[in-house]
Amino acid sequence: xxxxxxxxxxxxxxxxxxRFGTDKLGRDILTRVVYATRLDLGIAFAVALSAFTxxxxxxxxxxxxxxxxxxxxxxxxxxxxxxxxxxxxxxxxGVLGDTVPYVIGAIATAYTPYFIRLTRSExxxxxxxxxxxxxxxxxxxxxxxxxxxxxxxxxxxxxxxMTLVFGWAILDAAGLAFLGLxxxxxxxxxxxxxxxxxxxIITGEWxxxxxxxxxxxxxxxxxxxxxxxxxxxxxREEG
Length: 239
Description:
This protein has helices at residues 29-65, 67-81, 85-96, 100-126, 130-137, 142-150, 156-178, 190-198, 207-238. It has 239 residues and is mainly α.
């Protein structure tokens, strides 16, 4: 159990029995890192999929209809882009609370404008193609033209962006937890564990922050590699 204290095993260094050592309450850090992986990756997937879905739909509608609707949407996006995504997520989390759904909603809201702008830009291009005119001429309603015929052809940049947001969401979730604004103790979460370990740096318990910190770094790096690879694949197919 990742949250159960074991007073007899407090602050044990890495050994054959405790591969990643234990924390100040005697909890096994390896166990907590593994449990935190499930939570942090779940948050990252939920953030990326939510921002991708909502942002792509709003961007597609804005780019297709244009006029006043496009002006309103883009002004809202400009206001949101005035704040760094992490700062915006901090503000939203501070207002709503620190439960997992609120953390997901806060980070997803901060990254939704990226997908709105990308999809809108692609929609402005594809709506001028002949197949778009053909879809309208055969009697398809506007919503079907947008969601069925045009949107699937506008998602390539957003798919690449989504893989990058996976990594950013992991960093943001850990950063919020580190600052005490996201997931809070005793939940097993990478940012929480790094925060707890940072309090023990002076006393020499390096393993408390090192292993969860390495997990954050590897996860963010892995998703960035996936994004770079996906971008290259899509670029070759378009070429």
